[in-house]
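FIELD: query
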Amino acid sequence: MKHLLLLVLPFALFLAACAPQTTTTPVPATEAPADNSVKIVDALNRQIVLPAAPKRIILTGKALFMIADAAYLFPGAADKVIGMGDAGQGPGNFIKLVDPNYSHKATLAKDAGAEQVAALQPDLVIIKSYLAESVGAPIEALGIPVVYIDFETPEQYVRDLAILGKVFGDETRAAEVASFYKNKMDEIAAVVKDAPKPRVLVLYYNDKDGNVAFNVPPMSWIQTQMVEMAGGKPVWADANPAMGWTQVTLEQIAAWNADQIFVISYFKSPTEVVDGLKADPNWQAIRALKENKLYAFATDLYSWDQPDPRWILGLTWLAGKIHPDLFPDLDMTAEVENFYQSLYGRDKVFVEKNIVPTFKGVLP
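FIELD: result
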């Protein structure tokens, strides 16, 4: 037995020495990585050095569909992503429509632990940065490299697209997509820059457990930024929203006296929600309702208010609603067709078959 141990120990040490190594610490300038290595600086400003371009990528954690939809802006994602959490929100699942091999990929549970991820033998995992401690750290402890991204604000989109450009080896595509967003934002900004700013209220409707609640977003969130970029004034600034959605009363909604109200609903049709509010006696005194300025926030498979790639559609639609006089020729069907063609390579037939039928609140 002693001789056997003497033989096994050196062999194990040999295997460990030969295994590919990954580091998440900065590499000194004097230590140039191998020619085929990939260096990525993620959203937490950490440098990850991979021994080669990743070929087995997993997307996991909360808000998974936002990560997946951003990843699939890159044509190479379908071949390299081997597993992910549930890529849907409510009944919609866009990735199923654009990845022909989706059914063959591993689907992780919402609370998938590090062991479940490790069992798929990934060479890279992508997670939202706010999950670094709870989800990412246990995965990294197993020696699996993790890249963190945000995709929470327009500013972060440019940075995080560049990160994914490194991940998928397609920095040209990252620049193309970033240019698409920038051009659309600049176009809208130029139109609304000198216009009066209507008082706008954005409300998230939630009826979890049968208890209806209305909430406003923090001032730093994309929903608020979209209102400002679209030429509106968020009336809820004085509510001092916390880190997440802040619940507000109907009395407060009435007191804000907004010119326009936009209602978000993620799991129930927003048009049904707004129709219900219009029939609710408690809402009859709300000025926006009386003036026919109570709107369902536009959605297709997913709501356009979120930091999903569709937020640029939400911004375009919102600018047209807030300033209809400034965008008299806005054709949202054409905008949607351009979006899916430019960013996902999908033609008009795809959009008419799979996207237009899911519209809620998009068209007049």
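FIELD: remark
The longest helix spans residues 171-192.
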